[in-house]
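Appendix B, Record 12. Input sequence as logged:
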Amino acid sequence: AVVSTQSTGRSHKSHTVAVNYPQRQSHIQLLLPSDADTATISIQRGDLIVMATDGLFDNMFQKQIVERLQQIDRNAPTYEGLKLVADKLAADARNLAMDEEYMSPFAVKAQHYGINFRGGKLDDITVLLASVVDCWQDEKT
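Logged structural output:
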């Protein structure tokens, strides 16, 4: 697995109270680990797993992310290849976050809720890429 982080001074789903106000443990509403969404998915050799903060998903559409991921050789992924793409994804998201004219996924969602917002969303950006290189059958899972 490779982690890439940029600071800005399969699909994404989040718990949101309102646009730009994600639920957090606070006096308003307490979320417990049991409140988390869980899912079981099947994986196979060659699958790529993307884990990232909302700084990536608020600034890049899924199609843009998938285009970057296609630079990875899924049959023979290397640490260097994963790191290069993770770095590029984080840099792309950071550049888009600072573009005041870009119609980001965050801006689209804000406008859906009647908020006049245009541009990227400045936020922390962390990208973790993992590649499935071997699978095994385990009757318990």
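The first strand starts at residue 2 and ends at 6.
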